[in-house]
Amino acid sequence: MRKSLTLTTAFFCCALIGCTSKQNAQNSGNDERPNIIFILSDDLGYGDLGSYGQTKIRTPNLDKLASEGLRFTDHYAGSPVCGPSRASLLLGLHTGNSPIRGNPKWTNSGNPVELKKEDITVAEVLQQAGYQTAAIGKWGMADGKTFNLDAMPKQQGFDYFYGYKNHSDAHHYYWDKMYRNNEPEFIKENNYLENSGSYIHDILTREALSFVKRTDRNQPFFLYLAYTIPHLAVTVPEDSKVPYKNLGWPKRKMNTEGHYRNDPEGHTAYAGMVSRMDRDIGALLKTLESLGISENTLVIFSSDNGHEYDKDFFDSNGPLRGRKRDLYEGGIRVPFIARWPAKIEADQVSSHISAFWDFMPTVCELAEVEKCPSNDGLSYVPTMTGNTQQQHNYLYWEFNERQGPVQALRQDKWKLLRFKGTPAELYNLDDDVGEQNNLADAHPEKVKKLSQIMDNVRSPNSEFPLRPVERMLKKIRQKK
User: pTM of the prediction?
Assistant: First the structure.
């Protein structure tokens, strides 16, 4: 088998994953395990959906998804930026243990950290358990300067891949080089400098619909649909802007000539982007219904981190403090909706504290895997199905870009933040979700207790030490 580690034999004999009985089930056409679709938006804020309080942007399909399923209020991304957040989701590890703890440039060596042969993704677990698997959209786990086959989705458990290979390509909605499996595929009409040609988001939607339609009905499937909306650049075809024109909104002038080729006016474009994604998710949900598989398909929707675009007009972070790149709640608390008509009662709201690294044990439970790969998570299947849920002892994050290193830890209602060289901050999230009242001086024993956990929760990583990345900070200072 491909993975060169002690689990190789286990995979072969199905000891890691109970695949013998499941193989018999799928061969007889009686496999009743759910299909799983995980839709991940990019830089969508906690408050960008109607079901989470948005009043300006129209998201009827996602709001309906919430009303037909379960809306989590206290779910967290893996990181306040995309690369480590996605790694956390795929590997089931928080950023104190994940091999990818920062975006490509923010490593000790300056070289991107990519997925390796020995890394075990949720896709591999599901593939070995008999699921059909596909990744469509932004990958971002293979950002090296040279092509590394081992880091590609096809080598990480996905039967099929279509999308952007690395981060910077995904900053452009009219990019001209996508990957189909391991081969580049060029879109000749696209000009990303002029935002002309085929809008990549639309292509990703067509690919997702095609995959769902062609799956074998006797075998469950897993679709990881990683949209790039609403990450910068802020651009969208004109038809998606029409509902937001002539509303008396203030104009926001955007830079159209830099790395991000934004549309000239930001507010109508941003709203149009989110609504276009909502429209296309609606098309996906209708496809599930038309195929007769909606009842036993778990659809999850979330965002990889907090928002970046908004400057208070849309109230994208809702009541939360901070945004993308912050370990305050606005940077890491994200919308999270789960619909599974066969198992989840409609119109439910849960304050269960959960995070991206819980997806791995959740997948294992859904796929009836006998031995799940080592992870930092807890399955949220009990929460989805209305049963008693085991609680996390803590959730942990670390982040090391401009203001870093920063660490955060949540235990029940308490949140501790520690910035290098400054006193710790302590917040009671039950009373102060906006993190406005620092209680560190009033509760020194709680600070001490949580700090002790924080001191012992991470594993060392030479590429992501807890010290400033001087190489990158020097570049930033030189640009000023």
Answer: 0.94
